[in-house]
Amino acid sequence: MVETRSENRDRLSELKAFDSTKAGVKGLVDSGLQKVPSIFIHDGLRAENLAQPGKSHLSVPVIDISGVKMNADLRREIVEKVGEASEKWGFFQIVNHGIPSSVTEEIVEGVRKFHEMDSEVKKQYYSRDPTKSFRFISNFDLYQGPRTQWRDTMECNIAPNPPNPEDLPDVCRYYNWCRDAMFKYSKCVMELGNTLFEILSEALGLESKYFKNMGCSGGIYLLGQYYPACPEPELTLGFSSHTDSGFITILHQDQLGGLQVLYENQWVDVPPLPGALVINIADLLQLITNDKFKSAHHRVLSRKNGPRISVACLLRTHLEEGDEPKLYGPIKELCSEENPPIYREITVKEYIMHRYKTGLDGSFPLLPFKLH
């Protein structure tokens, strides 16, 4: 359905009114909202969900990576499984990954405490400036995306240049979260990320340190997502169909569920598993592997109950670049006369700024960087 100019003006007015509260979706819920506002309604969603339910016979691969550093035979088996999942699904879950449950539980509780603190305190950190090292935001693409998502986000550029603890919210320091839980968790994620990049390198027939030497594991952008309970979950989404903007994403989701991945034109549930982490290939890895590994579309359904909480660590740098910005393009060892490069070389900043400019508009984010 094509929107009229009047409808566009009405929508813009509603967006500005929502944005000006600096209270996010949770602020709407706390006000006693019983109906989903029009800016959040996704046209055709109800029909889409009925036409494409999660198929019970399909399941995202679950890979046990225990012993990956201890047993050569087991490592080869893990490398094969990760490589196959990265090519076919772009998504898999890992268990026995080495991050203690106490650490993941602490970071989830920290995200909850931040989003549920007093709104007047929290709104001090509400910002649409993506250069801030720490910010609270609802819908990064509020004014670019065709529909608004039912979620709020706490964002932190945790590596390679972590924020000064004094710049973080007082309430977070009071709960020892930002200083302890977040940095503790990100340290574990960095170590796990290096292991995963080794496995992914080997799965491509490359030397195990290849991706690390390229700088793929040098940054972490942490997103603490909060999906409030929704009065009409059939009308909106917590996160509409999208791909991720890093090299890989390491995601911890709570037990509420709702995450789905698009596989063979079907939406497949990614059910929460005790102790598991969700790993997905992101756009920049698809680019440098010349489409060998797939950055899969995924989404999050809204729920009547809630909140749903997840912690996503995007392994990439954010907007900072040195005097000589690093260029990323298809790996020469993976290209040939029969398999020529699909994409041109780009910087991480160039790619991220493109994402901020277009938002979640349903297009394939790598398309503008294709050579032909």
Show the helix and strand layout.
Elements: H1 5-21, H2 24-30, H3 45-51, E1 62-64, H4 72-88, E2 91-95, H5 101-115, H6 119-122, E3 134-137, E4 152-159, H7 170-174, H8 177-203, H9 210-214, E5 220-227, E6 237-242, E7 248-253, E8 259-263, E9 266-269, E10 277-281, H10 283-288, E11 298-301, E12 308-315, H11 348-358
Parallel strand pairs: 1-2
Antiparallel strand pairs: 2-10, 3-4, 4-5, 5-12, 6-11, 7-10, 7-12, 8-9, 8-11
Helix pairs in contact: 4-8, 5-8
What report would you give on this structure?
One of its GO terms (biological process) is coumarin biosynthetic process. InterPro entries: DIOX_N, IPNS-like_FE2OG_OXY, IPNS-like_sf, Oxoglu/Fe-dep_dioxygenase_dom. Residues 218-319 form the Fe2OG dioxygenase domain. GO terms for molecular function: 2-oxoglutarate-dependent dioxygenase activity; L-ascorbic acid binding; metal ion binding. Belongs to the iron/ascorbate-dependent oxidoreductase family. The chain is of the alpha+beta class and 372 residues long. It has one domain (22-369): Jelly Rolls, CATH 2.60.120. The chain has helices at residues 5-21, 24-30, 45-51, 72-88, 101-115, 119-122, 170-174, 177-203, 210-214, 283-288, 348-358, and strands at 62-64, 91-95, 134-137, 152-159, 220-227, 237-242, 248-253, 259-263, 266-269, 277-281, 298-301, 308-315. The strands form 2 sheets. The protein has an 8-stranded mixed sheet. Strand 8 and strand 9 (266-269) form a beta hairpin. The radius of gyration is 20 Å and the shape is globular. The two termini are 31 Å apart. The relative contact order is 0.15. The model is unreliable at 50-55 (pLDDT under 50).
